[in-house]
Structure formats: structure tokens, C-alpha cells
Amino acid sequence: MRVLLLNQCFYPDHVATAQHLTDLALGLKGAGHDVTVVASSRGYDNPQNRYASHESWQGIQIHRIWTPGLGKTAKWRRLVDFACFWLSATLILLRLQRFDVTVCLTSPPLISTLGSIVALFKGGEVVPWVMDLNPDEAVAAGWLRAGGLAERILSGLQNWGFRRAARIVALDRFMAARLMAKGVPAEVIHTDPPWSHDEKVRYDALAREDFRAQHGLSGKFIVMYSGNHSPCHPLDTLLEAAKELREDGHVHFLFVGGGSEFEKVKLYRERHHLENITTLPYQPMDRLAGSLSAADLHSVVLGEAFVGIVHPCKIYNILTLGIPFLAIGPVESHLSDLADRLPRGETFRADHGDVPAVVKILKIMSQREQSVPSVRAQELALKYSMEVLRSRLIQVIEAASVVK
């Protein structure tokens, strides 16, 4: 079977969608399929990182697209980068051979619609792997007006592509419900979250101490937010809690990753002279276990308006580690679904804006002795391992190739 994977990010980028798509590509190749990838030639968070325009990596053919790399500091810059990606991707896809199945992620927005248009002319089936929903996300973030001309056009394009899909992969029951509300038949939707990086992520006590010592954090109680910093994951409540605890020399906040809101965290730290906040860029995969194990409490944040639009992918690595986590977000969400399956004292939840509740939780947790990894959390994590979920996704893709 000839499979095309279409997304803005792929190996060697470190952003989450790149890592998951790379895992899928290797799994498909290992299952005997012919795999081609079309992705950007620039790093997602650092456009200065440039990758070869074409290479064969572990038997996978990678075609990379030039974009101007204007960055995310303004909407027009994003739009120009996206438009260049769509145009270049169109030219590459028309030039490439016909594929049995095209798997499209959702960055840049509506890229699955492009895959559907090309498949309409060249044949083959399309499987959108919906990492986030756009233009729904743009509306929830206030970037587009609901019911406006732009939103109606973009939603029409999105829904047309979804209606042509052989299968659609939703990440949780809330996202599946949104897809059904758009008219996607329930039988077309396969619901599974992205997997944990269980080959790379394990609780590592030695790497934990090395990482903490390297960054001057030994002996601290570390509250960590690791991953994409975006408007979908508003960090205001966590930052306000850091300000409230500025005189507590024991509690320290560590923000690791990138995204459009990463600079906001840095600016907040500087504006309020908060020495209890440290910011670090995305960590390479070979250091991820040490980085994530360094936390005493992980924080997972989901904006009220983004339930079913984005998915808290980082939670599965946290479950694998067995480290307690604090969920900041709405009661009705996938985070709450997971938290309800774990004992009290291993998970905590707070509403956005409830800074006193967050501060109380952090004070209580920081007075505890360091706990051993939770066996219950690690057992739950096994249900979301790459071995389990990747093989199911490959079966969905293989079945899509015979859809008529």
C-alpha cells in the first residue's frame, strides 16, 4: 500500500505532531507499506532551523516545502506562511504519484481539505487525523467571527473534506461529538488519542536529579508545564499562582516547550521579577525522560472554549511517568474523564481564574515527601501506549484503502 503523510511538521522537528507522525511513518514502514511524507522545510517553533528539501530516511521518502518562515508574531505572518505551504504542497502533490491513502493532520489549517481535493483528481482515499479543529479553534480564540463570511467559507471547505473522508480519527469523545454535529456519520469516526512516547519516556530517577542539578533546581518542589504554549492552553492562572508564591523559596515553576504564548511567560516573569519561574525550550527526545521526570507536579491546561477542538496530548506521557498532575480547565472534558479513573491525591483540578485553589493545592503538595511513581497511573497509561494505539491506527489506514 502506498501511503502519503501530509503535515506541516515531521522528523527531525520536536513538536508533538511531528513526533507522532514520525512514529506513525515508522510503524507503517515496519508493516511493509511504502511511505512518503510532505512537510515543511522549517522548524515549527524556530523557523531558523532548516531541513533538507528531499531525503530518504529509514526508507521513508520526505519532501519538504519552502515557506518564508515569517513566524507567529502577527496573524498576517502566519497567514502568509500557511498560504505558501498550501501552494507549494499543491504543486508537490500534483507531481507525486497516486497514493492509496493520504493521512492528513491539521497543520496548517485545512490541509486535509487539500488532500481531499488532490485525491478527487488522482484517486485514493483520505484519512484526516484531527489533532485540532479549524476554523473552530480560530473562532474560539477570537481570531474569526462566528457566522462571518470568512468563517462560513472555511467551515464549508472543512466540512466538504470531512464528508469525503474514508475515515476520520478523532482524539476524544468531545471531538467526535463536534464532528458528528458537522454531519460526519458516526460510523466514519474512529476515536483514539495520540499515544505516549513510551519507548522514550519512563520515570528516570537518575536523569531527574541530573536535569534538576543542571538547571539549579535541586531540592525544589517543581511545578511543570511542558509542551505547546498556545491560547488554547491559557496559563494565566498558573502564572498568577507563581506570583502569589514568589516568597516561597521551595516551590518553583518550570515552563518547557514553545509556541506563540511562550514569550508571554518570559515577559510575565520579567515584568514581575519572578525568580521562581524558569523557561526552557523543547527538549530533544533523548532528554525527554529526564526533563519530564524532574517535575513533582505536572500541570495540564485546557481552555474552556476549546473542549473537543484541541486535545491535551501531554497527559499520556505524564500518566506513563506516574507523577501527580493538576488539571486547570472545565469539569466536562477529557482531562476530567482521565482524572476520574485515578485515586484522589494523584490528580487535582481547578477552574481557570481560581488562583487561591491552585495556590492551596501547591502548598499542600509541596509539603509532602517526594512520592514514588503511581502504579495506578502507569497501569492506565498502558491503554494509551504506542504499541496499542499505533497498531490500531495502522489498521484504520489499511482498512481505508479498500473503501469504495
UniProtKB/TrEMBL annotation:
Occurrences of domain Glycosyl transferase family (ranges): 208-297
GO MF annotation list: glycosyltransferase activity
Xref: InterPro entries: Glyco_trans_1, Glyco_trans_4-like_N
GO process terms (BP): lipopolysaccharide biosynthetic process
Keywords assigned: Transferase
Database matches in CDD domains: GT4_WbuB-like (cd03794)
Domain Glycosyltransferase subfamily 4-like N-terminal: 18-194
Protein name: Glycosyltransferase involved in cell wall biosynthesis
